[in-house]
Amino acid sequence: MRRAALRLCTLSKGLLAPSRGLAQGSQNPEKQRVFHIHEACSPIHVNHVRDKLREIVGASTNWRDHVKAMEERKLLHSFLAASQKGLPPRRMKDSYIEVLLPLGSQPELREKYLTVQNTVRFGRILEDLDSLGVLICYMHNKIHSAKMSPLSIVTALVDRIDMCKKSLSPEQDIKFSGHVSWVGKTSMEVKMHMFQLHDNEFSPVLDATFVMVARDSENKGPAFVNPLTLESPEEEEIFRQGELNKGTRVAFSSMSLLKMAPTAEERTAIHEMFLNTLDPKTVSFRSRVLPPNAVWMENSKLKSLDICHPQERNIFNRIFGGFLMRKAYELGWATACNFGGSRPFIVAVDDIMFQKPVEVGSLLFLSSQVCFTQGNYIQVRVHSEVASLQDKEHMTTNVFHFTFMSEKEVPLVFPRTYGESMLYLDGQRHFSSMSAPVTLKKDHLIEP
């Protein structure tokens, strides 16, 4: 929703937090603070994150054992708190985790993350961020007296992902870090950061804010989470920002075009676009022609279909949210590439709401569409639906918003119907939430 495009990252004392300021082209990125190797604790290998999650919830690596594993989790109900007051407060550093993706020191890992352009696949990074966010929340709510956690923690929202002005090489180690930054009664905000090794230092690459929710041991109802205690002015500021983020999400949702009519300014803009497409030869509302260098929105679509196999399940035997994000991102990237006629680069990701879990065996329908363009920018919306093999009814599970930048100026996109006009305005709102324009530099941007 509110994301600063290509924003530089800084370090706060003891914890990592995004900077308040924007990096402009005139600034020298070498002057920013970096994260030194010798300052870090021993990180977890990225391949062990999913293993740790399975251990925490007692999930089996064998699909045939998943029913038995979920039956065993019913016994954990007694460990759930009746209220948040019965749970001990936790510090931010209690949930702090570092994870290493050793692309440089372990070259055998590179192929999974490699693009044909010899860059890192951003879709894979989304998968790693999703797993890390869940593990961080389990660390915050850890019960030392129980072998397994009675909580089922799932991703509710990807609030924003801000890209930093640093190159991302497939031949250098990457490090992720993160911690719980805000808690409600049953939900938690997680701040995560990504760095890459340059000259024996880890330099900022990415900031991400996810919102997680806690549910009971059978994932059927909400569950209370440990409160958060603040130990410094820096932590108080991080927590205050979490409160502001929550308020902004509520306000943004209340202004949704699914609930409220467009503003007067937006209505005027749509009417002007409509007038610009009327055929001057006929002077008829039904006769529409495109202005020069423009494309009808309906001609900017791409679609895909995936079968959700057990291999892509999460620890609760639903389809892994990171997998959904990767598939949506890659379709969105292909849509931007096809529309712009050149290789697009990701600028920002925001407001990914997980509305409904996806069951193993479902048919996953993804529909991607360019909904707004300006200059070199392409705003892409990806809509996700599922249908079971037995029931052909489609249900929406996610809506994804991606902002891309093309290597050259792209055509304008024009809506033809009222529904497309609402998509256009929604895309414009997401695009306008960027705090500042971005200067295209290939070595500073990330590909799929």
From TrEMBL:
<keyword id="KW-0378">Hydrolase</keyword>
<protein>
    <submittedName>
        <fullName>Acyl-coenzyme A thioesterase 9, mitochondrial isoform X2</fullName>
    </submittedName>
</protein>
<dbReference type="GO" id="GO:0005739">
    <property type="term" value="C:mitochondrion"/>
</dbReference>
<dbReference type="GO" id="GO:0006637">
    <property type="term" value="P:acyl-CoA metabolic process"/>
</dbReference>
<keyword id="KW-0496">Mitochondrion</keyword>
<feature type="domain" description="HotDog ACOT-type">
    <location>
        <begin position="298"/>
        <end position="410"/>
    </location>
</feature>
<comment type="similarity">
    <text>Belongs to the acyl coenzyme A hydrolase family.</text>
</comment>
<keyword id="KW-0719">Serine esterase</keyword>
<dbReference type="InterPro" id="IPR029069">
    <property type="entry name" value="HotDog_dom_sf"/>
</dbReference>
<dbReference type="InterPro" id="IPR033120">
    <property type="entry name" value="HOTDOG_ACOT"/>
</dbReference>
<feature type="domain" description="HotDog ACOT-type">
    <location>
        <begin position="95"/>
        <end position="218"/>
    </location>
</feature>
<dbReference type="GO" id="GO:0047617">
    <property type="term" value="F:fatty acyl-CoA hydrolase activity"/>
</dbReference>
<dbReference type="GO" id="GO:0052689">
    <property type="term" value="F:carboxylic ester hydrolase activity"/>
</dbReference>
<keyword id="KW-0809">Transit peptide</keyword>
<keyword id="KW-0677">Repeat</keyword>
